[in-house]
Amino acid sequence: MPNILELKNIGYSYHNLHGETKALEDISFGVSEGEFVAIVGPSGCGKSTLLSIIAGLLTPEQGTILVNNPDGSLHYPRIGYMLQRDHLFEWRTVYRNVTLGLEIQKKLTPERLQIIDRLLEEYGLDKFRDKRPSELSGGMKQRAALIRTLALEPQLLLLDEPFSALDYQTRLTVSADICRLIREAGKTMVIITHDLSEAISLADRVIVLSGRPARVKREMPVKLTLKDDSPLAARNAPEFQDYFNKLWEDLTHEN
Ligand code: ADP
User: Fold this and answer.
1) How far is the CA of 51 from the centre of ligand 1 (A)?
2) Is any atom of ligand 1 closer than 6 Å to the C-beta of 16?
3) Among 49, 190, 195, which is best to mutate for testing ligand 1, by the most ligand atoms less than 8 A from CB?
């Protein structure tokens, strides 16, 4: 698979009255189409900054991002963003929440609304379209947030700790569920997580960042024998512990 995105020697610093905070240094890696990449690293190392650069919200000070679409076109992939909280608005119904992205972008076309109807049905939310977000479970809220994101037909999904607001047990099932739906939709995904088990069970490759300024410390492809069953089953794969130990070692031995 060719890389649809290629980061080359990316560097970034924040500047304010107190001086400079160097967040990223010489970061290079690629993301291929349909791949799931997890980014892990110590708190405050620069993970969100890196995601903002990939999203095009920040411009790198050093380095370049190359785009290489499979059809040869040069447009930047359409990006979908999922954040730590589901950001559903309580004053809107579930339906008016999932259509909000389209409304803002003035893309409420019959075709797009049809996609939303199909996803609501597929994701078991059809019956809840006139409910308020507070009437949904944590997992259903994340599904609604995913529909709102997918309705904009992104090619690349960026997830910044999307499950961290959920309790541990809900998080296990919801993260597996959401990632299965993203795989079925054929999307490419870059996810930030501080949960090493989550990274191993969900991603095809884990990128470990060093402490700030973040550099790539390790790129670890993940191949688990039980991955086809589900990300939950993957946690019981014989290789799992080995991957976990490697990542743990990287994160606890700063050099
Ligand atoms: P992470 O996502 O890994 O926790 P961030 O990318 O949010 O890390 O932040 C990396 C570093 O940059 C941190 O030290 C943080 O304090 C600093 N930083 C983040 N945003 C800003 C900002 N707007 N201005 C100044 N410093 C910032």
Assistant:
1) 12
2) yes
3) 49
**Closest C-alpha among 189, 166, 172, 188 to residue 236:** 172
- pLDDT for 255 equals 59
Q: How confident is the model at residue 228 (pLDDT cuts 50, 70, 90)?
A: low
pLDDT at 241 over 70: yes
Distances (CA, A) of 253 to 26, 41, 43, 210, 220: 20, 12, 14, 10, 17
pLDDT at 68 over 90: no
Q: What is the mean pLDDT of residues 119-141?
A: 92
The 10s digit of each residue's pLDDT in 171-226 is: 888 888 888 888 888 899 999 998 999 999 999 999 999 999 999 999 999 998 86
Atom of ligand 1 nearest to the CA of 45: 3
Distance from residue 23's CA to the centre of ligand 1 (Å): 7
* Distance (Å, whole) CA 202 – CA 179: 7
The backbone torsions φ and ψ at residue 71, rounded to the nearest 5 degrees and listed phi first, read: -85, 5
Instruction: Look over the chain and give the mean of its residue pLDDT values, rounded to a whole number.
Output: 89
Distance CA 175, CA 76 (A): 27
> What's CA 153's distance to the chain center, in Å?
15
